[in-house]
Specification:
Strands 1-8-3-6 form a four-stranded antiparallel β-sheet. The chain has one domain: Jelly Rolls (Sandwich). The longest helix is centred in the first third of the chain and has 5 residues. The radius of gyration is 18 Å and the shape is elongated. The protein is mainly beta.
């Protein structure tokens, strides 16, 4: 008789695809972003995930943003997006400042992947980064992002 104490749970070995093989491991990574880094996101995007290696592709699944509010609020109309580092291809929908950076309270926002109808194409051996479309100014809050992704190996 087996005991629950001896059972090991490993998600990558529990989810089978249609051929009965594993569907792949989902990675989670948490990154802290300082106020100074937030203000530079338009010119110096924040690296989230390193390139996985030749013949491998990162599948962006989602991200959760957390703004740890400290006065004053950020000004300027700013949207943030997850994109590939070298190819600058957007992989997430934009989170606008009016629903995230411009709020005067601790705030959470979900970054969902762009749908296939949008024609999302990613790059082989590309890392992921967080980028802004405008320059956040006058703010003092920090941010954390939890990103969820898979690495697909086509070798």
């Amino acid at each position: 008789m087996s005991s629950r104490a001896f059972m090991a749970y490993d998600i990558e070995n529990q989810i089978a695809d249609t051929d009965g093989k594993v569907a792949g491991k989902v990675y989670e990574k948490e990154i802290s972003i300082s106020s100074a880094e937030i203000k530079l996101l338009v010119s110096a995007p924040k690296k989230l995930v390193d390139a996985p290696g030749p013949g491998k592709v990162i599948e962006f699944m989602s991200a959760m943003l957390f703004l740890d509010y400290t006065a004053p609020i950020y000004t300027t109309n700013t949207s943030i997006t997850v994109q590939t580092i070298t190819g600058n291809k957007a992989l997430s929908g934009a989170v606008t400042g009016t629903i995230f950076l411009h709020l005067g309270a601790d705030t959470y926002a979900v970054m969902a992947p762009l749908g296939t109808a949008a024609g999302v194409v990613t790059d082989v051996n590309e890392g992921l980064e967080l980028v802004a479309s405008g320059i956040p100014a006058a703010g003092n809050s920090t941010m954390k992002i939890k990103i969820f992704y898979r690495i697909l190996d086509f070798n």
